[in-house]
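[09:14] KT: can someone run the structure on this one? pasting the chain below
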Amino acid sequence: MTAGPILVWGTGAIGGTIGAYLGRAGHDLLFVEKDTDHVAAMNANGLAIEGSIDNFSVPAKAVVPADVCGTFERVFLCVKAHHTEEATRQLAPHLATGGFVASFQNGLNELVISDVVGRERTVGAFINFGADYISPGLIHFGGRGAFVLGELDGRRSERIEALHRDISAFEPNAIITDNIMGYLWGKLGYGALLFATALTDASIVDVLGAEEAQPIHRQLACEAVAVAHALAVTPLGFNGYDPAAFAPRAAAGAACASFAAMVAHNAKSTKTHSGIWRDLAVRKRKTEVDAQLGPIVRFGRESGVPTPATQELIAMIHEIEDGVRSLAWKNLAELALKARRQGEVARIPASGSGGELSIPPE
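[09:31] RB: done, structure tokens below
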């Protein structure tokens, strides 16, 4: 069984929330964060959690990456997806020979991590709770969600059992799976929907619940599911998102039922907008769009599966990042139109229809 302090690399919404709960449970943690103001605040006043779920503060020891010393058997990697390779290379010298890196992130980051430290030292994880970094030393925790752990080869190892026990201090309903890639591909499909909601200033609930927006959301989900199937991966659902509802032969009404379930789940959270929206509208910084949705396009191209809506969504997110496009509801209609104009939509069967995807007319 692993021992010693846990190295939490990245102390934003994910790392901050998980770390605070484990710290409150008595675990020895070292937080690594490149934001010097955040580091100073944690060292001076601790790490605080606020929101509808809990309100508390714990003492925290934090350093910038250059000041990390020693080796660690357990590393929780919690940085944004596009910072994964850089962070993994920085932490690699501090990973004990028999240690592991657990990817508490969004995207297929396990593939990047394993390329750097080795597949045998990489543990997969899927997360879907709602949290936001608010200010130095302060994290908002707004909603619980699925938390799944799994070895990349599917085995139920001693270390995954121990990690599960540790994580239970944060999420008592966390589970272990033998198909972590299925969950990760499920999150890619759901993530595409969240990126689409971030094209607007509306809440996740308002966008996913809007009937007029559901055709383009269905196409995005269909593309992710089709690519996963081409890779012989069965994407798994969670918190209302049902990948099977967006498969070619899904029952009529399945997609509508999934949208309703996603709306019901998100309505319980005080986190009304995605972290993607927050990056664009509040923090004015680059999103994880290339790292999260890029693999759908890349693997789709390699597998011969067209992904026109996903490609156009990535381009539009970049336009918002670059300041040449504003957040607006009309972006969803434009996304649907651009996807259709690529001329590849007819090759992707619509959920439950047996025909081509329904895209709103011009």
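[09:33] KT: thanks! The domain at 6-178 is CATH 3.40.50.720 (Rossmann fold).
[09:34] RB: yep, looked fine to me
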